[in-house]
Amino acid sequence: MKYVLKNQEMQDVDKETIQKIGIPGLVLMERASEKIARRLMETVRKNNRILSVAGCGNNGGDALAAARILLEEGYSVDFTVVGDLSQASADLKTQYDILARLGYEQKEEIDYEDYDWILEGLFGVGLSREVSGTYRTAVERINGSGAKVMSVDIPSGISGDTGKVLGCAVKSDATVTFGGPKAGHLLYPGKEYAGRLYVEKIGFFDSVLKKHAGGFTYDRKDLERLPGRFADSHKGTYGKVLIIAGNETMSGAAYFSAKSALRMGSGLVKVISCEANRPILQSMLPEVLFGTYEDVKDALEWCDCILFGPGMGVSERTKELLEEVLQRGTKPLLLDADGLNTVSRYGMEIDHPGGCVFTPHLLEAARLLGISAEQVKETLTDAGQKLSDRFRATVVLKDAATLVVSGSRPVYYNSSGNNGMATGGSGDVLSGMIASLLGRGMECSEAAALGVYIHGLAGDHAAEISGHNSMLASDIIESISSILGGISDESVL
């Protein structure tokens, strides 16, 4: 797990590390610049020309110190400071003076196209206004140079909180950041502008990061969070998942949800659907149990969790079924697709005793909040928080970069997945995967975050096999076993 920080949170980490713990800012800067220089040296050839472009803040200090280290290693480096040097931070002035005492002076007249690589440190994550004036000119010249670009901390012009472009922004090939990724690295368009992201340790302690971070993301080590399997077990040990899904024209949604739940390790999956879907589901997926809408009462007593909504359509019948689930069901409930559309269409209140997970895409979230999809996308984290608070639910807000928001808990920012997953049925697969984890006893917010992460990993694996253009939802399901196959069973630990 990696901690994800916003602007103020990172400033608080800096402040506590320097003022309370006592690690001087110049020490942190020297460590950061060493990491930056080493990352460049992994890629840049000795005959390449490098330009270090610094702003007047401490990010500029990092860029100047990295330039010094590269010069010491024999690289061809020029540097320049954009802005009024008399107004620069004390640490940047220190780095500038060190270079001067070593005999290096900034280059005044620069043709950005003369360089193979540009190291840019114009702004850090604290930028909150649109880029203008000489800084905007510098950004435009960097982008138009044709050079490869590495950014310090975050591409200049990208909001560290939202990933938005603040007027204009540097389009980087790589970004080196410190302590943990920032929200702006993981949300679009910031994620695209950042290029390859390197997260380096320079002296920020985990305890300090954890104290201040309002978010987190997973990496492959977190696959160990998957509930274990045991030698002394049976099919009931691994959860009984109830899926209420599908109508006469959309049997596929029920199929995708059910099969993905089974692939995730559920012991038993029962689908409640219309009678017309019985032969389809039982022939395509004989492992699944089947019942009709008349069987809902008994099924609610049988199950360990409930998934409601994929492919059901929005109708009075769907509303009545959801009301019955809310009245009789006591197990964790996941509402997806037409389950969510039914809530918004009929203005239903949700207060489920077993805990609730919502999995809306942008348009479904917009209907629930009574705003436009564009407004949801513009304020992704805030929109997720509003939904979570209003419905007392864990919210999986699905976008190119999916978020999981659950009350006052830290926000999960997903880092797996790709654009090939933008295909029909992918959301049904995700809902089945999360339902499987709920059925195996995971708490709502943890099941949602881990389900989203594994879903993205499966999509990445599927893309390697089928390509982004040709990927199907069924390819994602078939890739689940490849992702989970390397996890050790608890029974053999």
Rg, rounded, reads 26 Å
How much strand content do the residues show?
5-15%
Specify the CATH homologous superfamily of the largest domain.
Answer: Ribokinase
Q: Whole-number average pLDDT?
A: 96
The CATH topology of the largest domain turns out to be UDP-N-acetylmuramoyl-L-alanine:D-glutamate ligase
Helix proportion: 40-55%
* Domains, number: 2
How do the strands line up in the largest sheet?
Answer: 1-8-17-16-15-14-13-12-9-10-11
Give the strand tally.
17
| CATH top level assignment of the largest domain | Alpha Beta
Q: Count of helices?
A: 19
CATH architecture of the largest domain: 3-Layer(aba) Sandwich
Structural class: alpha/beta
**Can you tell me the overall shape?**
elongated
Spans where pLDDT lies below 50 across 5 or more residues: none
Distance between the termini: 21 Å
Q: Largest sheet, if any? A: 11 strands, mixed
GO molecular function, one term: ADP-dependent NAD(P)H-hydrate dehydratase activity
Family: Belongs to the NnrD/CARKD family.
Cofactor: K(+); Mg(2+)
Catalytic activity: (6S)-NADPHX + ADP = AMP + phosphate + NADPH + H(+); (6R)-NADHX = (6S)-NADHX; (6R)-NADPHX = (6S)-NADPHX; (6S)-NADHX + ADP = AMP + phosphate + NADH + H(+)
